Amino acid sequence: MHKILMVILFTSSIFTKVNTWAGKDDHIILREAASNQVKVAEVKNLKDETAVTLTGILVKHLNQEHYEFNDGTGLILLEIDDDLWKSAGIQAGDKVTAIGEVDKHRYKPTDIEVVKIEKVLD
């Protein structure tokens, strides 16, 4: 009985650590960002992992999954997984709405880790 209890406690502690390390699920970010439309100029004042929605121009592809984004109030880097931008059919110069979370770093500029991106049709 004691061994079973130890296994249960050990397993639950592993899941707790994995959930803490993994951060928020995408659906939680989407829900929180729906009510948090912000401008690039405001991002620097937000806490790490704040869910946000930004609308502006995808200026250019910098490297791998990094893109420069401008909403008229400033520039910020967006980190967009290949499968997201390919399925959205977007390219540099397109107006987009990006949903993601603020990702602050110690030694490099703050960026946005995108979980959903859509082309804005005018």
TrEMBL record:
Keyword Signal listed? The answer is: yes
Q: Give the source's domain of life in one word.
A: Bacteria
Query: Does Signal show up as a keyword for this record?
Result: yes
Which keywords are on file for this protein? Signal
Kindly give the SUPFAM superfamilies that the UniProt entry links to this protein. Hypothetical protein YgiW
Concerning InterPro entries, the annotation shows: BOBF_sf, CarO-like
What NCBIfam families would the database entry show?
A: stress_OB_fold (NF033674)
Q: Per its record, how is this protein called by name?
A: TIGR00156 family protein
